[in-house]
């Protein structure tokens, strides 16, 4: 996906190229000059690599800023790399999705052959925003029967019950109480309603005691003017969480472990 879009970073318009394969947002050094006084640049030890390159990019630093289009806004990290404007600015997949520029479609559809009757499942197609859209294919055949048999599993919000998640905290990181971000008056009733809905669904819970960590919420509008998307700026708390690493098995290993298992096609 290679399209260009103009977004505002702390109210400064900057043109980006959308890169659905990028995990981070990148700004070249020359473009960053236009943001001086608007953002705070910090040092970063991250190592970023261009596609099919073994040499890391030369980083100047990293900053966090509010980003917005005409319809949505979000908070994101940006890495500043050495180079002129010819190096270009890249908008990663996460920010592109949060701003509604890039859409990830999680869709199940079944194709039943007339002779082999093989069922094919595709999920997670990634595509750029387009004026044309194809309606989801109704579930049929084996897949439809499976969904119908376990209908309760495919309803509502899925929850993992009976398991306590353990977060490994780096005690050397000092807790941060971030400043509250004011919610616009016309959105406050919707925010209160959304908080009540999330609490009733068991997704969040009220904390009445004192806490060392405070993370502000950011409200992003949806296409439907009656709905909002509530985001939490977890940049500071994430710095205190130690990353757990697991070896992901290869396709060959999975086939060796389950030689007679059914196969799924993923369209990415």
TrEMBL record:
Coiled coil regions, renumbered to chain: none
Signal peptide: none
Protein name from the UniProt record: Uncharacterized protein
């Amino acid at each position: 996906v290679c399209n260009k879009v103009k977004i505002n970073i702390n109210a400064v318009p900057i043109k980006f190229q959308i890169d659905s394969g990028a995990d981070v947002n990148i700004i070249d050094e020359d473009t960053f000059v236009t943001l001086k006084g608007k953002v705070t640049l910090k040092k970063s030890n991250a190592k970023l690599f261009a596609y099919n390159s073994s040499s890391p990019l030369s980083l100047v630093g990293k900053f966090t800023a509010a980003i917005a289009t005409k319809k949505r806004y979000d908070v994101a990290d940006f890495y500043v790399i050495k180079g002129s404007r010819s190096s270009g600015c890249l908008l990663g997949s996460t920010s592109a999705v949060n701003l509604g520029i890039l859409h990830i479609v999680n869709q199940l559809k079944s194709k039943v052959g007339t002779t082999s009757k093989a069922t094919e499942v595709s999920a997670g197609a990634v595509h750029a925003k387009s004026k044309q859209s194809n309606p989801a294919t109704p579930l049929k055949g084996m897949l439809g029967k499976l969904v119908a048999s376990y209908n309760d599993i495919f309803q509502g919000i899925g929850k993992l019950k009976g398991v306590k998640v353990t977060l490994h905290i780096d005690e050397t990181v000092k807790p941060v109480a971030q400043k509250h971000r004011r919610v616009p008056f016309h959105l406050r009733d919707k925010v209160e309603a959304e908080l009540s809905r999330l609490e009733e669904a068991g997704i969040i819970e009220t904390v009445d005691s004192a806490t060392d960590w405070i993370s502000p919420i950011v409200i992003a509008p949806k296409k439907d003017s009656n709905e909002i998307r509530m985001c939490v700026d977890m940049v500071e708390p994430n710095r205190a969480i130690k990353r757990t690493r697991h070896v992901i098995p290869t396709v060959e290993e999975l086939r060796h472990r389950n030689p007679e298992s059914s196969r799924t096609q993923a369209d990415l």
